[in-house]
UniProtKB/TrEMBL annotation:
Recorded GO MF terms: protein serine/threonine kinase activity
Residue span, Protein kinase domain: 20-311
Keyword Kinase: yes
InterPro entries found in the cross-reference section: Kinase-like_dom_sf, Prot_kinase_dom
Keywords: Kinase, Serine/threonine-protein kinase, Transferase
Superkingdom: Bacteria
PANTHER family: OVARIAN-SPECIFIC SERINE/THREONINE-PROTEIN KINASE LOK-RELATED, PHOSPHORYLASE KINASE
Protein name: Serine/threonine protein kinase
SUPFAM superfamilies on file: Protein kinase-like (PK-like)
Organism: Limnospira platensis NIES-46
């Protein structure tokens, strides 16, 4: 593939009229090519369009100008910074954006098992994606093409980066970008609607299902009828006859194990993961792909709901004492099994639930690496995970004794066996059953 630009080629930004240089080719796609560039000693990325793409999409430049004017919704977006021209190539243009760091990997890498993130990292990625699209939609914009092709995450931390933001447009505004077929809302697939922030919600749910189940939510038993995975087949599965693979009222497209479908295309991965997650989390996907298919107006899950439940999922993680695998605290399961947490999904050892702390709106499992944040104790600081206010620590001389250390600048007041104890910053309170800790804005009770 011949490159459009050469190393060392000079370009100029339109808004600030700053000169920069192309350093190296990074990759190409349908719309153009991406290069690493140097602009005033700052390393950035430059997307340079094919002339034929510009001729196809005459609204491309106006979308870019609007995005630059509105500004970045959050720093998780690799957002357009400036439009770029090259005097010697007047028939086309490009734009500069932040360069994606090598630590960020694609969802496709996870599906190929080239990276294996923890559930904690996945829950963090789910939160960051939901929050990022929430912030984007709050600006009156829609993404139009949410898919795993434009999302990257750090498999160690779950931090995300969202690229291809030149597709972003004013919500409800007609455009030529319809989306990626596997992620399009059914009403778009069959031509009854155009992309909007509302259809973005469907695409987000598909993306999240892929993240947590390594499979598409609508690819089940009906795949056995497909002889050629062409546009007609996609239209049938994703638009004309969409059925969730875990829809208990309609099993016509149920997920099948490899015992029945040796290709795994009918949901073997999803079957393996589905039962690992707590009921409240499964219920979200069930609503998104049952009611959300039949009644999009009332059945789609809002980004604000996803981000809250992703944090709830992350706070529900605890570790198997035998193999160390992450499991989930599931209150619904405990109620239905007389308090029996069941077996570890990985090694099948019987699970022992660690202590937990219950707030008005949160239950947090107190593992050996648990941290509590302002988000958990102060309604005015929702989704503030900048600095922890507490962490679980081990007693320096008594290994079987664990405590909660005060990392904040404020004094806590703890009720230990009906005795009041002040916990100064830097000090700890023992994780004892029934202990209540007042963090100032909220009180938590330690339970076993």
């Amino acid at each position: 593939m011949s490159q459009l630009l050469k190393n060392g080629q000079v370009f100029f930004t339109v808004q600030s009229n700053t000169q920069g240089k192309v350093e190296k080719f990074l990759g190409g796609g349908t719309q153009g090519e991406v290069y690493q560039v140097n602009l005033k000693d700052k390393i950035l990325a430059l997307k340079w369009y094919f002339p034929e793409w510009i001729n196809q999409d005459d609204k491309q430049k106006s979308r870019l100008e609007e995005a630059i004017k509105l500004g970045i919704p959050t720093d998780r977006f690799l957002w357009p910074l400036e439009i770029v021209n090259i005097p010697d190539i007047p028939e086309t243009y490009g734009y500069i954006m932040p360069l994606r760091e090598s630590r960020f990997k694609g969802v496709v890498d996870m599906m190929k098992r080239q990276v294996e993130p923890s559930f904690h990292a996945l829950a963090t990625a789910g939160f960051e994606l939901s929050n990022s699209y929430y912030q984007l939609h709050s600006k009156g914009l829609c993404y139009r093409d949410i898919s795993f092709g434009n999302v990257f995450f750090d498999p160690d931390t779950g931090e995300v980066r969202i690229c291809d933001n030149d597709n972003v447009d004013i919500n409800g505004k007609p455009g030529m970008i319809g989306g990626t077929p596997d992620f399009m809302a059914p009403e778009i697939v069959i031509g009854k609607s155009h992309p909007s922030s509302f259809t973005d919600l469907y695409s987000l749910a598909v993306l999240l299902f892929y993240l947590f189940h390594v499979h598409h939510p609508l690819c089940g038993k009906k795949m056995l009828q497909i002889k050629c995975w062409d546009l007609a087949a996609r239209r049938k599965i994703f638009g004309e006859e969409p059925v969730f693979i875990f829809d208990t009222d309609d099993t016509s497209n149920e997920a099948l194990s490899k015992d029945i479908d040796e290709t795994g295309e009918c949901g073997d991965n999803a079957l393996a993961f589905w039962q690992i997650y707590p009921k409240f989390f499964r219920d979200l996907f069930t609503k998104a792909f049952t009611q959300g298919l039949r009644d999009p107006e009332n059945g789609r899950i809002a980004e604000s709901i996803w981000r809250g439940e992703m944090i709830r999922l992350r706070d529900s993680i605890f570790y198997c004492s035998n193999c160390g695998s992450e499991n989930f605290y599931d209150l619904d399961k405990l109620k239905s099994s007389s308090g029996d947490p069941g077996k570890c999904w990985s090694c099948e050892s019987h699970l022992a639930i660690p202590p937990r702390i219950r707030f008005k709106k949160n239950i947090i499992m107190l593992n050996n690496n648990t941290k509590i944040f302002p988000h958990h104790v102060d309604d005015q600081k929702r989704y503030d995970f900048s600095n922890p206010i507490a962490e679980v620590i081990q007693h320096p001389t008594q290994p079987n004794v664990w405590g909660l250390k005060n990392l904040s600048d404020e004094k806590w007041v703890a009720n230990v066996n009906n005795s009041i104890k002040e916990v100064e910053p830097g000090r700890s309170v023992t994780l004892a059953l029934g202990t209540k800790v007042n963090f100032g804005k909220d009180e938590g009770e330690i339970r076993a």
